[in-house]
Design a protein that fits this description.
Length: 298
């Protein structure tokens, strides 16, 4: 491919925050995030007590699930294999959620009242082990943008906050890819056509939790087509990021091509954000795809 190579500065913006509730006066942080950059917080750690450190073992995860997850809105905890540990895990994930909300208030205050559907996760498996057990479509060591097969989000943004809590000082390694407009332009000609009937049927049969819109179809197709393209995985524009233990990072995972290559033990918080709540909605994948296809997609 004869493209301009990506540089580190094109995909990442670093901020020197040390506390989750630290006041930050950096209006450009939200601009960088909406342009698809990773906001990197190298000194923002999530402290664990001595008792909580004993929870950092893959045995704690239900073998049928990838991660332990928690919905702070309804208090639902999923994926804990050991019943006697549930209360401790829930307290940890509730505190993590509270910290994530503080971070949004201090760093991204314009999103505060619009973010919804919070789910956070405790990820205890080494990335390499999980990868070996799944199909290429679920293999997150391949560059991809996030799209949920059974939960269409009709254009809403997927904001994710990650923290490496590895107790042995092991970094998490990511690859990050090209800007979304370039990515979309590259892959749109190869995406399968949308079938409203098939979307209707999948919704009717309960395969999807709501109707999969044209937008959701294109995002899923983009996710699959990127992951399935061996040449793009190897040769496509990309930068490797080392994300040390004790650091955090934030991105719009539906926009920023990413691949998790190695590491173990992470906390992650997901929120959804309506496009209208963005500072510059034209950066949303929905708006970019609509512009490129010249169609209304939701
Ligand atoms: Fe992902």
């Amino acid at each position: 491919m004869s493209e301009r190579p990506l540089s580190h500065d094109m995909v990442i913006r670093s901020l020197a925050m040390r506390h989750w509730n630290e006041t930050v006066d950096d209006a450009r942080a939200v601009d960088a995030l909406e342009q698809g950059k990773v906001l990197f917080l190298p000194s923002l750690a999530f402290p664990l007590s001595t008792e909580e450190l004993t929870l950092l073992t893959p045995d704690l995860v239900d073998p049928k699930r990838k991660n332990i997850s928690f919905n702070a809105q309804n208090g639902k905890l999923n994926g804990v294999a050991q019943a006697e540990k549930k209360a401790q895990v829930q307290a940890l994930l509730q505190r993590h959620h509270d910290y994530a909300c503080q971070l949004v208030s201090s760093l991204l205050p314009e999103y505060k009242s619009a973010l919804h559907s919070p789910v956070n996760s405790l990820r205890l498996h080494p990335i390499t082990v999980w990868r070996d057990a799944t199909s290429w479509r679920k293999d997150d060591t391949r560059l991809h943008v996030d799209a949920f097969p059974s939960r269409p989000n009709h254009g809403e943004r997927i904001l994710r906050i990650f923290t490496n809590i590895n107790p042995h000082g092991e970094s998490r390694c990511w690859r990050v890819g090209e800007p979304f407009p370039v990515l979309a332009k590259r892959f749109i000609p190869r995406l399968k056509r949308f079938s409203p009937f098939s979307s209707w049927l999948q919704n009717r049969l309960g395969i999807t939790k709501s109707y999969r819109s044209h937008y959701d179809h294109l995002m899923l197709q983009l996710h699959d087509t990127m992951k399935g393209d061996e040449n793009y995985q190897q040769q496509g524009p990309q930068v490797t990021l080392e994300l040390p233990a004790g650091s955090s990072w934030i991105c719009f995972a539906d926009q920023t091509p990413h691949a998790a290559m190695s590491g173990q033990f992470m906390l992650e918080q997901t929120f959804l954000l309506p496009v209208a709540a963005m500072k510059n909605p034209d950066n949303a994948p929905l708006k970019i795809l609509q512009k490129l296809t010249q169609r209304t997609l939701i």
